[in-house]
Design a protein that fits this description.
alpha/beta; 6-stranded mixed beta sheet; two-stranded antiparallel ribbon; 11 helices; 8 strands; 37% helix; globular; binds uracil
Length: 288
């Protein structure tokens, strides 16, 4: 007999499934093993569970097709994310989606209301630039100017970033620029952990689609999100690291440079390392 779930719970589950769908996760495993409560309360639980052993092996359960599913996405077997302490994080569970495009990522993001930032934003700032860029800059989140214009890094920090890009011998249109969170945190505060967790899978998909040679993280939030670390940025700034097999380098955020112009020299050294990898001519002494 199928029991009907209460409507609020059904809606919650549907929202959650839609969220995973957006991340490209379509299969879930139902854990049929008895709960600790059942094990403790049932005197027959030991023999019962061993008799059931075969049938309790997790079986893939196909999610019902959601409206947004595109026929171009082949169904894939993806393990359901396990509880945080026991298994892979959502970060690891989010696999590359075959045939994904920036347009589809943007469509999946939609008029997002997944986290609390939606209630104060004006515009979703998805990202901008060359969708086939060899170099992607990842910032933290939109500020007031970006929120107003819908484009990343167009305020004061953005002007400095543009100068840095041009000092590398590139134009903004040559690179791709995006952020960890796509909506402005109020008062330009740092995004909260839950906001980063909710939004970052869309960033991972953007990076997978663009497949750049180099990712430059601007500041600690981007670096911590892509490297899944709590270490301070000064411990690994300017070092070559990896994100899903791609070269990643973290440097200071342009907003930090506006407050600490003395750090510009270090950032310029970092960018010269990037230029060397991209085969751009490294000119001694030139900096933004
Ligand atoms: N700071 C960021 O991190 N991103 C922007 O888009 C603008 C400022």
């Amino acid at each position: 007999m199928t029991e009907r779930l209460p409507e609020p719970l059904r809606k919650k589950i549907a929202d959650r499934l839609a969220f995973y769908e957006d991340l490209g996760i379509r299969f879930f495993y139902r854990d049929r093993s008895p709960s600790p409560h059942e094990v403790l309360s049932s005197p027959a639980s030991v023999s019962h569970s061993s008799v059931q052993e075969e049938s309790t092996l997790p079986k893939p359960v196909r999610m019902p097709a959601l409206q947004k599913t595109s026929p171009t996405m082949p169904p894939k077997l993806v393990p359901a994310p396990l509880p945080v302490a026991a298994g892979p994080s959502l970060f690891e569970a989010t696999e590359k989606i075959v045939g994904d495009t920036l347009l589809r990522v943007r469509e999946d993001l939609g008029e997002c209301t997944r986290c609390k930032l939606h209630s104060t934003r004006r515009t979703i700032v998805f990202g901008d630039g060359n969708p086939k860029a060899e170099l992607v800059f990842v910032g933290e989140g939109p500020g007031a100017d970006e929120d107003a214009q819908g484009l990343p890094f167009v305020g004061r920090a953005g002007k400095l970033l543009t100068q840095m890009i041009e000092a590398m011998g590139l134009q903004r249109r040559d690179v791709y620029i995006c952020n960890v969170v796509k909506c402005r945190p109020p008062e330009n505060r740092q995004p909260d952990d839950d906001e980063v967790t909710t939004c970052s899978p869309f960033l991972f998909r953007q990076l997978d689609v663009i497949a750049p040679k180099v990712i430059v993280c601007l500041g600690a939030v981007a670096a911590k999100t892509l490297l899944q670390t709590n270490r301070g940025i000064s411990q690994f700034r300017g070092q070559w690291l990896e994100f899903r097999g791609r070269k990643l380098l973290a440097t200071y955020h342009p907003a930090y440079l506006l407050r600490n112009p003395n750090a510009k020299g270090e950032v310029w050294k970092d960018l010269q390392k990037v230029m060397a990898v991209l085969g751009l001519e490294v000119k001694k002494g030139k900096s933004a």
